[in-house]
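Exercise 7b. Backbone tokens:
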């Protein structure tokens, strides 16, 4: 797109280079390569003498087209970070003058990009500052962060390129997005989350291909000889953009029929259902029984906990949950998910942490008598300190802190009753919560990316576990 617009403003010859399409196709499949980045670095020299204002105009023209190509899921992620008061930064190897208009169109205030040297309004053939690629991108990000009071080690980073490995390795929350083949392997080995902005969260892709696409190859009438198919009107379904297909029968066959139709159109299917199927409110009656929760946890607990202690923990969740009108069974499902049913290091005595409260993953060397701060615990087996909250016991400290923290996510102060407010106040004394999070997650899926980061399917995993606990 950039090269097209540079041709339009007269900075590049208005003709295609032989093999240009093949090169672009190779880039789409393989991603960045060392030769392609070598050529990119030489662009500053090739652009020597260009009128900077024409490059900026090319950037504006490209942005008008590119902004509509940005997937909605990417826009939603940008908006979520903005709502949570995080500065959003575009960091790219591309020339600053070309990408700045796109960043503005997306509402991204900060841009870290390769800047070309300029003299008298024309590029002078040099790179002014960092070549924002590989280690140079990390250096440029660190330089920007130092001037804006941002801690890179506590930040997020998203990339599709293996050559952004230095940056991804430097942040606390790295995510591979539409990753090239090499980055997909590294992300899997390091257990980094992977996202695809062209599909909803939770839709898998294997080698960049959605499994549904492979299954659509089997959607052929001859493979269903017991069905008489009569499909017509598929030309009314657009090839791109939104389309809602509605079945007109109360039948289990409709999904198969719709799938067959969409396979002929060549589009994947996303089924809709009422939200109660996919989510559950945090405030409200219990969605399971104490017996179900006890049976699940006691069968999987660590030896540190007796059966009687598990029963007492479940009973306390039920007691406080009924008092404060919170789905305490869902809270116990979260406990089972976070602690491996009371087997994790943080959940075992003397730490008694029910749901990873304050657990950041940070560690620090030292000795048992020299704690780095109030919310650190000594790991004797590893001989280091781990950051997180420890609780003296379950009934008076751990359970109220857990339920109160869930209520703080689900309710604002004005929406909470007296009992709920008491639990919330205690929980926030233990571990404060950003004001922007108060009342932001009335359902368990609302905790995605909040209680756990990046946690794109955090709530769904807890819901699935709760279903299994109910048998």
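Sequence design result:
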């Amino acid at each position: 797109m950039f090269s097209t617009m540079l041709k339009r403003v007269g900075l590049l010859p208005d003709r295609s280079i032989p093999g240009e399409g093949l090169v672009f196709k190779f880039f789409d499949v393989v991603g960045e390569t060392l030769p392609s980045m070598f050529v990119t670095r030489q662009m500053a020299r090739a652009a020597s003498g260009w009128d900077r204002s024409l490059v900026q105009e090319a950037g504006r023209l490209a942005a008008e087209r590119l902004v509509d190509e940005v997937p909605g899921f990417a826009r939603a992620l940008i908006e979520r970070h903005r709502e949570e008061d995080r500065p959003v930064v575009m960091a790219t190897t591309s020339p600053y003058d070309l990408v700045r208009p796109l960043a503005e169109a997306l509402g991204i205030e900060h841009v870290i990009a390769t800047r070309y040297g300029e003299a008298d309004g024309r590029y002078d053939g040099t790179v002014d500052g960092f070549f924002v690629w590989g280690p140079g991108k990390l250096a440029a990000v660190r330089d920007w962060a130092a001037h804006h009071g941002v801690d890179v080690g506590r930040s997020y980073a998203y990339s599709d390129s293996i050559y952004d490995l230095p940056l991804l390795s430097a942040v606390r929350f790295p995510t591979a997005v539409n990753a090239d083949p090499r980055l997909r392997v590294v992300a899997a080995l390091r257990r980094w989350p992977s996202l695809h902005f062209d599909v909803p969260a939770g839709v898998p892709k294997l080698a960049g291909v959605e499994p549904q696409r492979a299954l659509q190859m089997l959607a052929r009438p001859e493979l269903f000889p017991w069905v008489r198919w009569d499909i017509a009107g598929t030309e009314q379904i657009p090839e791109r953009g939104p389309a809602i297909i509605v079945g007109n029968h109360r039948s289990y066959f409709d999904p198969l029929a719709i799938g067959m139709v969409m396979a002929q159109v060549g589009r994947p299917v996303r089924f809709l259902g009422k939200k109660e199927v996919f989510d559950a409110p945090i405030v409200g009656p219990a969605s399971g029984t104490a017996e179900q929760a006890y049976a699940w946890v006691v069968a999987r607990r660590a030896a540190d906990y007796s059966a009687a202690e598990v029963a007492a923990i479940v009973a306390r969740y039920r007691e406080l949950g009924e008092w404060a009108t919170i789905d305490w069974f869902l809270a116990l499902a979260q406990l089972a998910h976070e602690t491996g049913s009371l087997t994790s290091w943080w959940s075992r005595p003397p730490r008694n942490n029910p749901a990873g409260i304050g657990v950041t993953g940070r560690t620090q060397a030292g000795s048992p008598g020299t704690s780095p701060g109030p919310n650190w615990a000594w790991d004797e087996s590893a001989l280091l300190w781990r950051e997180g909250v420890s609780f003296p016991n379950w009934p008076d400290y751990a359970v109220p802190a857990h339920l109160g923290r869930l209520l703080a996510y689900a309710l604002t102060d004005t929406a909470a009753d007296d009992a709920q407010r008491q639990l919330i106040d205690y929980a926030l004394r233990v571990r404060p919560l950003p004001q922007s999070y108060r009342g932001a997650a009335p359902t368990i899926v609302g905790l995605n990316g909040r209680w756990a980061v990046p946690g794109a399917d955090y709530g769904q995993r807890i819901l699935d576990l709760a279903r299994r606990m109910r048998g």
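Instructor comment: The mean pLDDT is 89. The CA atoms of residues 280 and 443 lie 5 Å apart.
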